Amino acid sequence: MTKPVCVLVGAPGSGKTTVGELLAGALGVGFRDTDHDIEAMAGKPIPEIFVDEGEAHFRTLERAAVAAALASHPGVLALGGGAVLAEENRAALVGHTVVYLSVELTDAVKRVGLGAGRPLLAINPRATLKYLLDQRRPLYAEVATATVVTDGREPDDVVAEIVALLRG
Ligand SMILES: Nc1ncnc2c1ncn2[C@@H]1O[C@H](COP(=O)(O)OP(=O)(O)OP(=O)(O)O)[C@@H](O)[C@H]1O
Ligand SMILES: O=C(O)C1=C[C@@H](O)[C@@H](O)[C@H](O)C1
Ligand SMILES: [Mg+2]
User: Fold this and answer.
1) Which residues bind ATP (predicted)?
2) pLDDT in tens, 35-71
């Protein structure tokens, strides 16, 4: 089985996509993001999946995308912010190198703004992010083999810490 060199988890705005692309470049490996895989599978953007079929259907596609990517992607893999909600996904992460990009409310709100492209944050992003962070912190921590704090830091600085972590 081919394992990702690093799986990134964290809340919306933690930088999984931004840091993941830079990290893959620094390591000279490919980058994959389950949010993009789901959009390719569904043939439409995530907000449209939420509108047309609902969140439960999105989560079903997400479980399939996570399982497929963990089994086949050798590079850097970013998971969607809510992937850790499913017990099946948390179990699938056991044995992988999983970096939790942590972010607290102030920076998360600044980064996601009015939540464009993020259907769960379409209404009242600050209150919703607070709820999501409180609900998910323990789940991100449960699956993580390392935690990297991103608050007040530039993506390049976060990437450098992860590269050092991976090189042991
Ligand atoms: N460490 C950082 N410092 C400042 N801005 C950042 C940092 N990381 C990401 N950003 C910015 O925050 C925004 C959100 O980042 P990004 O899309 O990478 O988050 P994400 O974790 O992939 O979110 P989602 O779960 O919604 O996919 C982007 O505009 C990005 O440029
Ligand atoms: O936090 C979440 O539940 C989500 C985060 C995004 O990455 C997408 O997976 C989707 O918008 C749901
Ligand atoms: Mg992303």
Assistant:
1) 13-18, 118, 153
2) 999 999 999 999 999 999 999 999 999 999 999 999 9
Structural domain spans, the chain? 6-163
How many angstroms is it from 140 CA to the middle of ligand 1? 17
Kindly state the DSSP code that residue 123 receives in the 8-state scheme: S
Contact 23, 16 (CB under 8 A): no
Question: Count of CB atoms within 10 A of residue 133's CB?
Answer: 20
Residues contacting ligand 1 via CB (< 6 Å): 10, 12-19, 35, 80-81, 111, 118, 150, 153-155, 158
Q: Where are the alpha helices (DSSP H) in 34-154?
A: 34-42, 46-52, 55-72, 87-92, 105-112, 125-143
Specify the pTM: 0.97
- Nearest-CA neighbor of 6 among 101, 100, 76? 76
Judging by DSSP bridges, how do beta strands 6-9 and 76-78 pair with one another? parallel
ipTM of the predicted structure?
Answer: 0.96
The fold adopted by the segment(s) 6-163 is Rossmann fold (3.40.50)
Determine the Cα–Cα distance for residues 28 and 134; give it in Å rounded to an integer. Answer: 35
